[in-house]
Structures
1.
Amino acid sequence: MLDLINVSYDTQIPNNVGLSSDRRVLKALEKWHPGYINWWKGSGPDGFLEDLVYLRTAVSVDPKGWAKFDYVKMPEYRWGVLLAPQVEGRVIPCGEHFGEPAWQEVPGEYRSMLRRMVVIQGDTEPASVEQQRFLGVTAPSLYDLRNLFQVNVEEGRHLWAMVYILQKYFGKDGREEADDLLLRQSGSDEKPRMLGAFNEETPDWLSFFMFTYFTDRDGKMQLEALAQSGFDPLSRTCRFMLTEEAHHMFVGETGVGRTIQRTCEAMNEAGITDPFDKDKIRALGVIDLPTIQKKLNLHYTLSLDLFGAEVSTNAANAFNAGIKGRYQETKLDDDHQLQNATYAVSEFTDGKILTRDVPALTAINMRLRDDYSKDAVGGVKRWNAIIRKHNIEFDLALPHSGFHRQIGAFNGAPVTPEGDVISTDEWKARRDEWLPSKADGDFIQSLMKPVSEPGKYASWIAAPRVGIDNKPGDFEYVQLHMA
Ligand SMILES: [Fe+2]
Ligand SMILES: [Fe+2]
């Protein structure tokens, strides 16, 4: 009998989907595999291919013990295909097919909509690996280096997850899309990745932590929405991906938190109380809090753009078709069809920020984005608690959702982080007050000196409170083959 909990390692590709008896898909995946390894070597982490990294690998989809930890060379990582177990009697949770049995095959009428959704999700996974390609050489510790690589291999696995869906359920065009996922490149002029934030640079480790906190959280929300899909294989694959995603956001939240902690400690030690005393604080080899706020502003707003236009017929169609649900759809107490419901959407009209009720069906993106913002606020509160603990008067905050937007109602609107509308000229003149300037970037870059002694950390970041897999503080998370 097929074991749907534990992962089978009897094929080249570990899986819990019975690949060894699904020759067609197994063959397609095996054919795709060498191209993937090529991509990993050419676009994945630069260097470190021969080093032993202490990584977790999924061995089960049982939430109680799904991973094992061991040293592995990254190109030999066992990227697998894992789906959360099928839920007996699952029904389509929303839209016009509400209550009908979930689809086990692609419904013909929604085929292209579904494929596009899988491709867009799939495209983000390798993109982030490409964006983070050069971070390894400046890692502030072996602990952080290992976390970077853990995130990278799992984003690689998420690509596998989407490629499996494409190859199993979408025939020839699915195979072509799978190949194209290895051809597009983050930041490329000719063949860029599909979404804006995934073509931005991740130039330093603070960016990496902000990215994993804010942009991986967008990933979480998209996966949550797709986990509600009436197309059951997609739902199952996204549910398992969410298990892994939690660690990525942990890396982001604790990474930013440790950066803040180190700054506050250094200020306390030097007797500096004014968080805006930039030169003195920077001279301590730490990142001043206002600059951390600017980084937050940048990554939060880039991530807001990923939710698309506030009012969207595409989003309405996907919901109506039962292809994509709302956040925690099955827990919501309404008709799940949004026949008469409205939803408040903010817009920018005649230089004013207004709120307008629109049919809730068309505001699916806005709603998911609002859920995202609520989710994102938690970490900010915990960061502020660190600052308060050190008796420093400074509060980090999420900027207004109209600030620095390039998609949707506020595209190009001259809104400040506080939500005030100013003139475009003034906005441009004050840009560097709110977003990282070239000089800020150069300063942060100057701190990015690698530290590779076990248990040691760069000047700008505190040690973590606990190790990965409960390892002691001086654990050698990466065994560098040449020091
Ligand atoms: Fe991912
Ligand atoms: Fe992620």
Note: The two ends are 49 Å apart (CA to CA).
2.
Amino acid sequence: MKKFAILLAALLLLSVTAMFVSAAEFTNVAEGKAYTLNIIAGTPGYGVPDPDDGTGYGDGIDAFRQRLTNGEKAPGPDGGASASERAYVGGQNATEAEYVIDLGSVVEGIKKLDMDLYDNSGWGISAPTSVEYFISDDNENFTSLGVVEAANVIKTSSGTWNRYDMTLDLDAEKSARYVKVNVKVGSHVWSSEIEVLVESDEESPDTSDGFVYAVAALTVSAGAAIIITKKNRSK
Ligand SMILES: [Ca+2]
């Protein structure tokens, strides 16, 4: 029985280690956060035929639909062309636009930023040019983190659609309350999500259902191990 208790303890330790290793993922802290839109060059209000029923590919005047932080990123490279993906995209008829996301409070540990952009010559959506990311604590003084050129990123395609993941990986962790994204494109800002990513670690464990079940299972295992150990001692 003693051997069994040791084996159980080892498995327990292994499970905990595996859990924390698998928890080292990125969390999008921009999800659900409000943002403002400044159309620098273009016409606001593209693609909103009926603001009430939510149809259309546009994010609306002043981005009232807030689709770029609703946590729904177009799963494929067709930029939300299919009806099922329509609600993902928050397009703008603009060649330059600036978004400012308010994270609500200063967030530490920002390691990566991302915005998906698309083109389709058949739809009249020209290729994107670049995305520049900035951070600020007061919404006035912004520091640039870097520029991502569309020509240098991974491009995936589906038919005549092309998707560009305008990802900026940071060498060092940054903290900020506001994230500004300056987008330059050929004709339309065609995007489904802007993400501000923080690396999860042991201090912020996964709280998904899987994690809860794992903790429950470990608690039961630990209880069994204690009982077995006590039985062994009483022998
Ligand atoms: Ca979205």
Note: The first helix runs from residue 2 to 22.
